[in-house]
Known about the structure:
3 strands
Amino acid sequence: MDSLVHDRGGFPYAQVIGWLRLIHDGPGPCVKAYTYKLPQKRFQRRFRQERYEWQGKEFELDFDYSELSNLDIADEIRSEIVRTTAKGGSLQGRWLDLACFDYMTVVIDWRSRLGLPRL
């Protein structure tokens, strides 16, 4: 949050406009992300939250190669999440709060979750 305040001067709205759902969904060791967001294009300071709409699959990462460590897998997933805010992404120009992801990703054993052998 400190970097957001420094880079953009703070986030004026304290409301959720969408989220990514990460799931391990086979076949094989892959992670898929699905996007849900509010349908409106513009948001005012105190907007009314309508029903979130499913937008479809955002990305799919396949981890068939087994040389990656848990941190490398987490870094790849994080990079793909950040790309959703780039030009052409479904959350283009939006701010993502990755604090929870960064906090929990170091304690997750990604390799065993994905069914990969231990290094």
